[in-house]
């Protein structure tokens, strides 16, 4: 099933505030102003929940989608070779958030140590850029300028991916609970 324009607009209305919350947190911290790390954790939950809702609409298994995305990312990485860490294989069959968070962490250690080695504030700033890209892609999809298959394979999978990365960078240990949808996409009038 393809996403309707209404589905994509509703997704955009969920993603934009989440991306803004991460950017706002980064900005406040850089200006020595108070900021609540829970805002970033809530943004991470929104990303994960939104991805699950879209996967349900598309009748796609979120872990399979995520595993395929890891396979693509790893294959194009300069450090990839036969026998390298296989995040896709590690992800397949995982059914709980904590296990998937650990899969993401192992992938990041193997392929993104340049980002993992940054300070937490620099990692968050880097992730804020990725969230801006997700919001832009969602707007492009809603406007009909991004193919459904591309949006699903790359951007919906990235919502899961960054939903876990944001949890990890804020030291949130995801629960050993099943990966299931927790809320539907809200309707846009």
Tell me what portion of residues adopts beta-strand conformation.
under 5%
Percent helix range:
55-70%
Count the strands?
0
N- to C-terminal distance:
21 Å
What letter string, H or E per element, gives the SSE order?
Answer: HHHHHHHH
Name the quaternary structure.
single chain
Q: What average pLDDT do the residues reach? A: 93
Q: Radius of gyration, Cα only, in angstroms? A: 16 Å
Question: What layout of secondary structure does this protein have?
Answer:
Blueprint (H helix, E strand, L loop, with lengths): L4 H26 L6 H22 L3 H14 L11 H5 L5 H15 L1 H4 L3 H23 L5 H22 L20
What would you note in describing this structure?
This protein has 189 residues and is mostly helical. It has one domain (5-79, 90-169). Helix content is 69%, strand content 0%. The chain has eight helices and no strands. It has helices at residues 5-30, 37-58, 62-75, 87-91, 97-111, 113-116, 120-142, 148-169. Helix 3 (62-75) crosses helix 8 and helix 5 (97-111) packs across helix 8 (148-169). The longest helix has 26 residues, at 5-30. The mean pLDDT is 93.
Précis, in short:
This protein has helices at 5-30, 37-58, 62-75, 87-91, 97-111, 113-116, 120-142, 148-169.
Key words describing this protein structure:
189 residues, 8 helices, 69% helix
């Amino acid at each position: 099933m393809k996403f309707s324009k209404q589905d994509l607009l509703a997704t955009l209305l969920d993603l934009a505030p989440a991306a803004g919350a991460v950017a706002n947190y980064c900005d406040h911290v850089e200006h020595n102003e108070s900021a609540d790390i829970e805002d970033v954790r809530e943004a991470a939950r929104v990303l994960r929940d939104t991805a699950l809702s879209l996967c349900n609409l598309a009748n796609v298994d979120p872990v399979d989608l995520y595993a395929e995305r890891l396979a693509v990312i790893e294959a194009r990485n300069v450090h990839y070779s036969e026998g390298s860490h296989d995040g896709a294989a590690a992800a397949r069959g995982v059914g709980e958030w904590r296990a998937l968070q650990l899969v993401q962490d192992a992938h990041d250690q193997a392929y993104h140590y340049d980002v993992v080695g940054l300070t937490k504030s620099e990692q968050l700033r880097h992730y804020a850029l990725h969230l801006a890209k997700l919001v832009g892609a969602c707007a492009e999809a809603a406007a009909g300028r991004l193919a459904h298959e591309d949006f699903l394979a790359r951007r919906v999978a990235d919502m899961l991916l960054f939903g876990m990365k944001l949890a990890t960078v804020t030291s949130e240990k995801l629960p050993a609970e099943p990966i299931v949808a927790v809320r539907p996409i809200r309707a846009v009038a």
